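#struct-help
A.M.: can someone run this one for me? Single chain, 483 residues.
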Amino acid sequence: MSEIYRNFIAGEWATSNNAIDNINPSDISDVIGQYAQASAAQLQETIEAAKQAQKEWQATSLEKRQAVLNKIGEEMMARSAELGELLAREEGKPRAEGVGEVYRAGQFFTYYAAEVLRQIGENADSVRDGVEVDIRREPMGLVGVISPWNFPTATASWKIAPALAYGNAVIWKPANLTPASAWALTEIISRQDIPKRLFSLVMGSGAEIGQNLIEHPEINAISFTGSYQVGKTIARASAENFTKFQLELGSKNALLVMDDADLDIAIPAAAGGAFGGTGQKCTASSRLIVHESIHDQFVERMLEATKAFKVGHALTEGTQLGPVASEAQLNANLDYMKLAAEEGCEIAYGGERLNLEHDGFYMSPALLLGGNNQMRVNREEMFAPATCVIKVGSYEEGLATVNDTDYGLTAGIITQSLAKATHFRRHAETGCVMVNLPTAGTDYHVPFGGRKNSSYGSREQGKYAEEFYTQVKTSYIFSGSPF
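D.P.: on it. Structure tokens below:
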């Protein structure tokens, strides 16, 4: 029997009546551990306990809060090899990507440690004589964090770190698919010098724990990353209680490859953006929009690059593409491959389940040709190692195709024209734009988020995070007569 990892409820490691197996998608015979499932009563307990802890944390000195976040970040970076391997083992991304994710997550904490000391307000003269105005930000209070499985440490960290930096309490519900990474981060946080009940981990199903969290009237803010459909549910529930909410949802990102593109830049950008992380990134390039004059040459080289990807166990040296994270996700991906063929795409390579040395959820990277922007495979987020080439006759047609989507997270262009790059940056209807770079890959010190159905609410990351995790207070002070 594998070890049972408990929830962290109101400052204590709490037992539970139920637990789930955490299966390695690279080798389904490998059970990483059993992870407890919290009850609705435990969620209520941690919310009640967090209210007083939050007040204590808000009153804690800035230097102490800074030191706490620094310690969390430094330990994560120091242990990135160990924790990154654990992440790769449970999620399926290659070890190097897992190590990089944990290290980057540590940087989120050290970045927001510095932001603790930058909480500077404003002041103004009133329109009334003898009155001064003080404007400052205060914590929201109790913040619910619901994080996804594809970046189980990084996404959670870029929510938890600013929430703590700005003086909030955190109740974290991670994805049930990747509980080990959540437990490991919680164990680090649990050892810090913070109020005992300030931070809680409530692992459990979305139907019970997630739903109860978003509907709870004492939660002041909810930050969620996940699917568009679940995001709509959260929006409705939050509106009922006037709970502040922030949503990062689906995407259907496009990379526009122009006729003047340098293919030595375009091919790595397209292949890396499409297949990195097994395509399980909200910033993945699932549409490759290519000018007709360069189309055939691009396809020839892209096909070579796709075939060259080494698919294998996440912990095997040299693996470039790990398994899909779960059997359900793999089946959904294979269904999209069938749909692509039915819609008239040519599957030039891949899109099949692979039987390798270890029994896991392996899929070959898929390159689809002959697509158009009306096909479902080019309208819906697949979250698969698959991308579709769409041929266009001009820059104007290419830009229109990029923007013809319900989503708007990232978009990219490969061109040697400064004029086209500048026009594209200004007219791409996305929150992030990449020029001569993959659509996947962002920095932690600047805002991240999308438009349309990709995002709702204020931006994540960088200083912009304070818009969500704080609320503004304006104070008027009468100083009396000057004499």
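A.M.: thanks! Residues 4-249+454-474 form a domain with the Aldehyde Dehydrogenase; Chain A, domain 1 fold (CATH 3.40.605.10).
D.P.: also worth noting: The first strand starts at residue 4 and ends at 5.
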